Structure formats: structure tokens, C-alpha cells
Amino acid sequence: MSVSLASGFAAITGLADGPPTLPPFGLADGVAAQVGTWATLAALYWRDVHHGGGQVIDLSLYEPLFSILGPQLAEYQHLGVVQRRQGNRSPRTTPRNAYETSDRHWVAISAGTQQVADRVLRAIGRDDLVGDPRFADAASRRMHAEELDHLVAVWIAARPLDEVLRAFAEAQAPIAPVYDAAQILADRQYRERGSFVEAPDPDLGTVAMAAVVPRLSRSPGRIARPGATEIGADTTAVLASLDESGWPAGGMS
Questions:
Q1: Which of 60, 111, 125, 178 gives 116 a disulfide partner, CB atoms 3.0 to 4.6 angstroms apart?
Q2: Domain total for the chain?
Q3: d(Cα 95, Cα 105) in Å, to the nearest integer?
Q4: Are residues 158 and 108 in the same domain?
Q5: CB 222 within 8 A of CB 209
Q6: Contact 2, 65 (CB under 8 A)
Q7: How far apart are CA 143 and CA 232, in angstroms?
Q8: Is 90 part of a structural domain of the chain?
């Protein structure tokens, strides 16, 4: 069974009138890897600082993804409510959606508070609707979600990406472009932050890939090269680097 199915993720992902949507990459694998990493570090801390001895880490593939899906169990247990697919919408706030600009880019908005919702209205030139009873609080906005979403969608659809982002910045309303790979590679913030690196590769010259995260101030980590193409290409070198205890020669740093 797909882990995305077992975790409950797919059941709430997708359009309201469409089928469950599976992630187009190894989402559960990546989340489990992150959790496994900090679990290993916690176990090492327990062993080395508290002298507690070694531990077995029991980590299934579906549980990390399941654990970040929100209060769905409590809502069903006490209210009988099963969260349904809503596309990019949210059952808790509005406006929240992805909107297409006139030059065929996409932006995402999530108005989590009334203050943010008011700023969105100002950004789209509808100052007259700030304080309107239909949009004056979260409950009222949810009741009129279709109307509010339509106002935002129409305004954004009539303008190019740069104009939309500029208007929202001036209103201090949060918005983000929905980046694809081409936009990420061209983005100044990504480059200045070093969010991706050009790793040397014997076959391709260089390969762009996500940098090591998070960065530690004294040991930030680096990518020396992508994985070798041939199966077992690094086996001899890895085994030669280990001492008899199975640790890297020279001990742990």
C-alpha cells in the first residue's frame, strides 16, 4: 500500500470533486528520513551526554507523515467530521488559494488572520470591503468564501505577476509566487542564500541540487559530488575509511 494512502495524506489532497491526489515525489520517504535523522541525533545525545546506553529507533514510514496532518482524528472523534478534499482551500480560513496571473504564472495566498485578510482586500483595491460584515471575521469570511475568492481571483487574473507582487508588497499582504524549477534556478534569493549548489559530476559537468540543510555555523556541511553512477563504485573507499569498530578512521568528530 502506498504510504501516502495509509497516512491519510492522499484522502485530503486534491480537488473537492476529484480523486485523492498522490505526491509526485517521495514525500513520505523524505519526511521519514528527516525524522529518522533527528531521532538518531537524540539517541546519540542520550548515549553520550546522559550515559544512557544505546537505543533501538522504531520508526515506520507512514507515521511521520501521519503526525503532521493536523487534528483530523480529534475532529472526527468528537465532532464526527471527516476532513474532505478542498483543493488549495482551507476549512479554517479564506481567502486561501492559488491564483493565475494574466501572464500565466501562479501565486498563492493564505489569509490566516483578519489583519491579513484586510490587507489582501486593500492590495486588490477593495478598501471599501474592509469591515464589511461579510468579511469582518473568520466565520463570516468562511460563509462567504466563494464570493471573496472570486474577487481575489478576478483581480489577479487581470494583471501580470510583477504587478500583483508589487501591489501586495505595498499593502504588506503576504503572497508568494508558485515557483517551478526554471524560476528557482533564476531566483536571486536562492542564489544568494546558496539554497542550491552546482555539484561537480564526471558525466554531466555539474548537477544543480538542493544544498545541505540546515546550515550549522561551525559545520555547515557540503556536497562533494552527486552519487556515483556505477553500483558499488564507492564500496572499496568506504570500507577502507572505517576502522575495526565500524566508525570512520580517526573517530567521531
A1: 111
A2: 3
A3: 18
A4: yes
A5: no
A6: no
A7: 59
A8: no
